[in-house]
């Protein structure tokens, strides 16, 4: 999830408002930010600014916006995605204000400028936030792509003119990876090389939001004599919006799903969602031989052109195993790392950005704790001060040329059903039931024999607890290593009871326990290329 708040002299704005899928809970509910405390502290925003159209940056807004009832500024693609969500929830859409990249919007004491950047979805922007006393850059998600398939390369001059900035709030997702991210053009070339050698049906699975990848596949299909079909509701919806906005004007006509079975295999290229092993996806049904429109045959090809979201590795491997049992050829980052390109900057790109901006301070965000630590080390090598690595709920003040911690809010899990639809209550239900609660979050990584904990143990309580963090961490490490779980949900189910018993023995009163398992990133090297190979 992503939600940042910026305040100056009583004026507040919000940047992004995303959601996440809780893979460690039954039915994979959606978790949205906890904003219940904002009004009581006079921190409710008078405007929301969205950096780009990914779910973890805008997906929760339809649930939270009724509390704020304020204008929402975003580029046209993100606005259309939000419009669909607002209509689904029965909300009026006149608050959605489309702006073009490069536009400056004034909200209270803030001048907010949308600075176009390259990312894995079009119209992504960093935000320049200027007040009477400060110049801050909020990077959002970005990368340096000299050869993007949609839009122009990132402009150095738009950042150089900002220098020096007081603070950069910066993407850390690939801050532990040396080199430079791969271009979308390279990913498209790798896809074409593989597809040209395929003799049967070709199924390519990628994220629906990667319109550049979809555009490239349309061209590849035409050059290889194949006709295109789309599988997946999110894919159909995203392509429809992209066509409406003119991003896919040259996309070839699509074959209806029910006609796929009538075409020769060598004439078919299917673009599908489901790369993360989602059990109800079209890709999973094909792997199980249960898709109503077609059956894959031996020597057909399935190409995974999307990274594995951490924590999904096991279900993805089961998906691939299903294809292999059918005799289908599987292509992924292991057979060809260039089949996917990251949307986030590696270390050489971060260095370049900071050479342009000349920031006085840096606040690492995004990624896990290990990525933010790596970002701080990189900044220190460049002489950039990083005063804090913060937790969710931290309020910082930018004063006297440093960042000072003002307070720490206790944030509670806010869950909504993954099948919630229009007409359901729009206010999220707090998970809190008792007089106080204890939230524990840990990063876990699947191994060949089980699971292991990675990075810092995070825990938070509304009241002081006589809890020894080292003892808790040691117990968790020992316990997790012995649990033979296949999924995060199974791991949580088998860990929660013993954890509750362990805490009951050591605390005077048992609080309500919120246990969140967060997948750690296993293989970032598949998303980048060496700077020496540019």
TrEMBL record:
<feature type="domain" description="Metallo-beta-lactamase">
    <location>
        <begin position="1"/>
        <end position="180"/>
    </location>
</feature>
<dbReference type="Pfam" id="PF07521">
    <property type="entry name" value="RMMBL"/>
</dbReference>
<dbReference type="InterPro" id="IPR055132">
    <property type="entry name" value="RNase_J_b_CASP"/>
</dbReference>
<dbReference type="GO" id="GO:0003723">
    <property type="term" value="F:RNA binding"/>
</dbReference>
<dbReference type="GO" id="GO:0004527">
    <property type="term" value="F:exonuclease activity"/>
</dbReference>
<dbReference type="InterPro" id="IPR036866">
    <property type="entry name" value="RibonucZ/Hydroxyglut_hydro"/>
</dbReference>
<dbReference type="InterPro" id="IPR001279">
    <property type="entry name" value="Metallo-B-lactamas"/>
</dbReference>
<keyword id="KW-0479">Metal-binding</keyword>
<keyword id="KW-0862">Zinc</keyword>
<dbReference type="Pfam" id="PF12706">
    <property type="entry name" value="Lactamase_B_2"/>
</dbReference>
<dbReference type="InterPro" id="IPR042173">
    <property type="entry name" value="RNase_J_2"/>
</dbReference>
<dbReference type="InterPro" id="IPR011108">
    <property type="entry name" value="RMMBL"/>
</dbReference>
<keyword id="KW-0269">Exonuclease</keyword>
<keyword id="KW-0540">Nuclease</keyword>
<keyword id="KW-0378">Hydrolase</keyword>
<dbReference type="GO" id="GO:0046872">
    <property type="term" value="F:metal ion binding"/>
</dbReference>
<keyword id="KW-0694">RNA-binding</keyword>
<dbReference type="Pfam" id="PF22505">
    <property type="entry name" value="RNase_J_b_CASP"/>
</dbReference>
<protein>
    <submittedName>
        <fullName>MBL fold metallo-hydrolase</fullName>
    </submittedName>
</protein>
